[in-house]
Design brief:
The protein is an alpha/beta fold. It contains ten helices and twelve strands. The chain has a single domain, classed as Rossmann fold (3-Layer(aba) Sandwich), CATH 3.40.50.300. The strands form three sheets. A six-stranded mixed sheet has the order 6-9-10-3-11-12, sandwiched between helices. Helix 3 runs parallel beside helix 6.
Amino acid sequence: MSVLRLENVHTFYGHAEALRGIDIEVTKGEVVCLIGNNGAGKSTTLMSISGILKPKMGSIYFEDRVINNLPPHEIVKMGISQVPEGRRIFPRLTIRENLEMGAFTRDYGRCPTGARQGGDRALKVPGLLSKVFDLFPVLKEREKQPGGTLSGGEQQMLAIGRALMSNPKVLLLDEPSLGLSPIIASKIFKIIREISEEGITILLVEQNAHAALGLSKRGYVLESGRIALSGTGQELLNNELVKKAYLGE
């Protein structure tokens, strides 16, 4: 059963059509990747899912509910969280404060006098923080340090950790290895696999097609806003067209 489904989705930037009727399905617990050249529509797909961009045609379903017209914060509350390209952490906030910002959609309870108190958020945020710190020990070691002082790889860990603080069912990852050394990128891919093994469904956009397909159960190849190919990760790794265009073989 699919947890996330796109049907005939068309998304525009002004009059320019970026997505031209794409169909994508992601089953619960899967890692699914999107590969393609710059401008193919990969990031646009993620932003359409997360509500940052609104498709003009087609439908996006999350757990069989249409989410096209929901604002981004409601989509996060439902269980979809995005790690944006370029990380976009808050450089002047501490690591802990950055992570706590990721939990802003947690519900608040009310005390008898009507004053706001922690409620669900107060109960769950410490547990979520603990899970993130277990996954990224370096963030725990530096939790009082401003986010902007971290290395590129550590900032990527922080961005992923911040997204996990919303306790998502589906994690959208946009170019997680961008700008990182091969060694650090390998660590990030290992962490993504660990997150998947915890039961979180992942839709991955990644420039490193070989690593993405090796990590993913299934994949889609986007070209000029359309799905050109789809298949299992292994099938696409062995596809001659994919080898030539995206794997440098």
